[in-house]
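User: Can you help me understand a structure? I only have the sequence.
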Amino acid sequence: MGIIYILVVTEIGKEGDVSAALEKIKGVTEAKTVYGEFDVVVRLETSTLKELDEIVTALRKVPGIIRTVTLISS
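Assistant: Let's start by predicting it. Here is the structure, written out as tokens:
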């Protein structure tokens, strides 16, 4: 499937906690706190759509996340 980026909006002050929690999820290669409209940018690599679904589902369960946007690169 390739490399996927997920843009994350967190609750105020939760950026660091969310970033640290996301880095522990299998398949996530990076989770960086950023400034701007989004609070964290996540990079992950998957080989199947099913694997992507599992990672995104786990990611959305992390406390402090308000919303996500998934970007699939080719």
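Now, to help you interpret it: The chain has a mean pLDDT of 95. The longest strand covers residues 2-10. Let me know which part you'd like to focus on.
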